[in-house]
Specification:
Layout: H1 2-15, E1 34-39, H2 45-61, E2 68-72, H3 80-83, E3 88-92, H4 99-110, E4 114-118, H5 131-137, E5 141-145, E6 150-156, E7 170-176, E8 179-182, E9 191-197, E10 216-221, E11 225-229, H6 241-255
The protein binds zinc ion.
The site of zinc ion has 6 residues, from helix 2.
Length: about 260
């Protein structure tokens, strides 16, 4: 009898027949979460180009009111209580500017907030003067970059993660200016590196050439609900379906932690 039941269930699965009472769709009755999108219109042109395209990308993800989002180019009007209305903040080539904004963002993250940061949102040098940012990112200060922006071979470091779901083991990412930090996050046991540039890219660059070193580009610090992606330079970043999937997965992972 058990064998017969197993055969019937197997046939149903193969044929696409769904058992009574089950339904494959999971439709939201209302918006699933709230997202704050923050970018900087005073950044360099290529960083603003990416940020405007990411704004449009997020808009398309929200179709059907799957989620609600607000867009801002300043955190001046977003004290901690305002930030806490959002399940996640997406930052494209922008960081909190004043001490008040930095302090509130730090508390937002320490109290369970979500963050997806791109490219220059992870830029920190001695002039940034914000030690917590290094702790949050899990690395040292900005070290060097490749130039001009160019495509590069990426390797998925963790294949069984929601952020890398359905990505190939290797893919060529669209043109970007790629950053290194010193020390890199690979030296930090609290960081999980999900995607890196392949060592086979070296020497990488034409004007500014990077010759060696681990090259993580997507990672998460385990102490926070965060993910950082080094992508975010210029107007070609959304030309690759594979990378678009990675970005969608990353936003989804932070926004829907219980539905991954
Ligand atoms: Zn850049």
């Amino acid at each position: 009898m058990k064998r017969l039941l197993a055969l019937i269930i197997g046939w149903m699965a193969l044929s696409g027949v769904v058992a009574a009472g089950e339904y494959p769709g999971d439709y939201a009755k209302g918006p699933r979460f709230r997202l704050l999108y923050y970018y900087d219109t005073e950044a360099e042109v290529a960083h603003v180009e990416f940020a405007e395209q990411l704004r449009d990308f997020i808009h398309r993800l929200s179709y059907g009111e799957g989620f609600l989002y607000d867009v801002t180019t300043s955190l001046e009007a977003y004290p901690l209580d305002s930030l806490k209305q959002y399940d996640l903040i997406v930052m494209a080539n922008a960081l909190p500017k004043t001490d008040r904004e930095r302090g509130d963002f730090q508390r937002y993250m320490e109290e369970g907030g979500g963050w997806v940061g791109f490219h220059a949102s992870g830029y920190n040098d001695s002039s940034t003067n914000w030690p917590w940012l290094n702790e949050f990112l899990g690395c040292g200060t900005f070290y060097c970059n490749t130039w001009p922006p160019q495509p590069a071979l990426c390797e998925v470091n963790v294949s069984d993660h929601p952020v890398t779901k359905n990505l190939p083991g290797e893919f060529v990412a669209p043109a970007c200016e790629w950053y290194q930090w010193n020390p890199p996050v690979t030296a930090n046991p609290d960081v999980e590196v999900l995607v890196s540039l392949s060592q086979r890219n070296y020497p990488l660059g034409i004007k500014d050439i990077v010759h060696f070193g681990p090259f993580p580009i997507v990672w998460s610090h385990r102490h926070y609900r965060m993910i950082y992606l080094n992508m975010g330079h210029g107007d070609l970043e959304f030309s690759c379906p594979t990378q678009n999937l990675l970005l969608t997965n990353a936003i989804r992972w932070i926004a829907l932690p219980s539905n991954n």
